[in-house]
Amino acid sequence: MPKIITTGNFKGGVGKTTNAVMFAYTLSKQNKKVLVIDLDPQANATDLLLNTMNRVYQKKPIFKETLFEAIKENNLEKSLITVKDNLDLLPSYEDLQGYERYLYSNFEDDYSQDHYFSQQLSKIKDLYDFIILDVPPQLNKFTDSALVASDYVVVILQTQERSLKGAEKYIEHLLQIQSDYNLTLELLGILPVLQQNGSELDLDVIQDAKKSFGSQNIFKNQIKQMARLKRFDRTGITDNIKDINDRRVHAVYQNVIEELNDRLKIFEKGE
């Protein structure tokens, strides 16, 4: 069975998209078949992965249909793009802005609207070991569609007060939708993204997060500020073993994914 994970926070600019893509990239290197679903009209995950295709792998994406058209036709497979070995993408495009309007026009109740995407995803999900969803940082049908389709959530917590508040609101909503629809949706953990690499503010926010969510829910691994990680937006994801900065970034994410898998094993043992 695939493991379907949404990365989230109701505060924008916290590194949610970067981490979603890096999770997927790292898992694909471990011979896991991975799908990234960019369910955000801003298309940042799509931009990063297509940039990686173009600049790093010298591959041109072949677009058969936009994700929104594939959603309307009940055939997500038409929109799939293979980025690299073991890594596929359902890409966002500007027409995805019509997704909420489409749901409101075609389904009368919240349950039908929020479960529609999950029903479509069920047709292809068994092709993958992991499916990672990236969504906007707002309470909307993109977020609810992703949560209903997911097994787990990783909340991305940048070490600033607004991000902490956004994480708290996000988890409140997660618990509410879990209850409303009787979902088997679990919080896999909260991943700290340091704003100033170990400053007093970083430590204070992480300590507050432990009080709010419980220390067991905070990832032990943390994402530090790394210039190379920011550079990937421009260059695509490079992975040169001779480049110390590339090695550092990928080593960090290997550790994060190792912890993520350990957390998954705990939940699976409890099932």
From TrEMBL:
Listed transmembrane segments: none
Domain AAA: start-end pairs: 3-186
Protein name: Cobyrinic acid a,c-diamide synthase
Database matches in PANTHER family: P-LOOP CONTAINING NUCLEOSIDE TRIPHOSPHATE HYDROLASE (PTHR13696), PARA FAMILY PROTEIN CT_582 (PTHR13696:SF52)
InterPro entries: AAA_dom, DNA_Partitioning_ATPase, P-loop_NTPase
Pfam families: AAA_31 (PF13614)
The organism's taxonomic lineage, starting at the top: Bacteria, Bacillati, Bacillota, Bacilli, Lactobacillales
